[in-house]
Input
Amino acid sequence: MMQEDQHRQWQRELQSAFLCGSLPLSDDMPTYDAIFTQIEAIQANSEWLTQTKIHVVMDAISEISNIPRDGDFNLQSRATALVNKYEDLPNSPIPISFEAKACEAAAPGKELEERAAAQASEENPTPVVMVPIVPSRSTVPPPLPMETLTAIFKSTMMECHEPSSNWDFHDSKDWREGINLLLSGALVARDWYISARRLLYAGRINLNKSESVRLLLRTVQEDLGTPCPIRHLFLEDHVPPAGEEFRVFAAKLIVRCTKLQYLEGSLGALSFSKSTPIPVFESLRELRVTNQVFHRLAPLLHCLPNLESLDVLYIADPLVESPMSVLMGTLLDDNLGVVLKDIPSPKFSLKTLRLSQSDLARSQWRWLFSSCTSIEYAELQELYENAAPLANVIGTSVRSLHLKGALDTPQEGDDELVETLPAYTNLTSLRISGRDWPWTELLSNIKASLESFAISYSGPGVDSVAQALSNPGWQPSLQVVTIHHWADTDYFYEVKASDVKGAREKLEHLCARRSVKLHWITEGDPDLASVGYGIRESD
Output
């Protein structure tokens, strides 16, 4: 039984490597050479082929013309040899080859041979040699190469728009027609199925109904035990909060998609319990969650060892008192929660972190980010009382920090975030988005040695930066100052073009004196207000 399991495992590994949308890397080919060697050593019989289906995989591999390092390992020719070997077995499950059928059909019967020989001896003393004419395989059009099939399907799908928020009725209709074409093509033959499957699972799959999740789960479960090729899933129940049925189906689907690279969940769609058997997702690099209950997401997090990017818009844990509901420093604030106590901390090393409107206890921040020692980029927004406990955990790990204004009122700053700036001691880059920040306090709270500093344009903000630059002791390591000027909103904040010009000239002079580069980036059309609202500079 153990040998049979091993043989089926070989079949699954080869099918996953060669027949699921891409070919293995060159460095991985010795592994598959070793599997071939073990398979070649087996004394195969028809029963073994029926159980393992290895002959099906070998038949498909024999048709692949661009196997990496095939000059070194000859896997295509070895697969062909194995298929020929299996065809000759008694009661082989492989159909008789085309050439054998052709020979059988074309070979004259014994009676026909005798009659022809007798006739030849009467009419001509020279014996006539009967040579059966065997139809060549070339008389039948060969199947299209896999690459050609994929290119044909892909060219058809390129005429359809990718799913987006800007879809209209015709875009949706064209996309659905393209998907139906792939689904129909998948039913034609094995090669067509493989090519269509590659494209069906290639992009982002959006699921927003329980029935849709259930149907895809059924398809994945019935796919003969092969690894699911889905790379990008977006799950969001259109009847928020996510119903129990949706969450159950979604969890079952996710644990089967072990090749995931991107996962997105909204409105509580990602929900796991401590007892959920979750595999390790080695390939998952990006996770994005919106409106999520923390303790339901936590069982998944420690199974993402290679996660590089985490994007969170509102996450909280109703089972644990958080800084928004208790005074900072109390015992309740340090409560990890019953659920998390039995779940190991994540071991990922994030490169990118985006947090907005997230409400967790200090111990939960520590549990979540304890392994993150070097975060290349962090984007923080509307954390309020949560800003301080978060900064205590990740402050020394962040290299580039972006503080954003409120989500609904993006010009409004966050005083609590400003107060945490001294904790970010290893920053080399800092960007502030929004106009209404306590600029004097903000600039004085920067304790790291910056190389790059950027702000959104506002009169008070630019004046404060200019004043700081006039002090040679302020940020002596600074190399670049960037100003993002949203020109098409100037009218609403009573900003005049002459004021902008004067501020720019002043900064140019100060930056030049300190050998600091000034990047002034203007977005939008400054004349938009006068066109849309009849406003002029003189007004």
